Request: fold
Amino acid sequence: MSLYLSGDEAADELLSTDPLALLVGMVLDQQIPLERAFRAPRDLEQRMGGTLDAGAIAAMDPDELAAIFGAKPALHRFPSSMARRVQQVCQIVTTDYGGNAAAVWTSAADGKELLANVKALPGFGIQKARIFIALLGKQVGITTPGWQQVSAPFGEPGTYMSVADIDSADALARVRQYKQGMKASASAARK
Reply:
């Protein structure tokens, strides 16, 4: 598996090999460009001395983690609140999944349980959970029975509706075009 989400080879390699990095990137994918959100786990890893560990992040002083997120360039537009959210996710990964971020999805017996696991994470509403599950199914290769149903419509092949479909520069352009069309439709509907 080789993800193409950040536009940075080292960051994409980390996302492809470290489930916690992928989970953190998805947490941060809101109100900033997606490339920045998915590059942030690599930046966080470097700022933390070269390791990205759920237990270490979970146990950190919250102010220290917020300072790491806020150091220039900030890891997110809202560094303090996102540091808190990432820490909460890492606490759940540590206490509920033994520090193994991949267990959030690999421990699920079926799509319903998978959706419940992801939705239980801070920052994951129903739509974001469905998109993340679609990303796991389309690009990470999960085979949990029912993942496509619980990720609909994002899990459907060839939709180009979300980050789940981005595997090239062309796919990124198609997803952006779709999102711009959705924003234009929503704007027209409000008039």
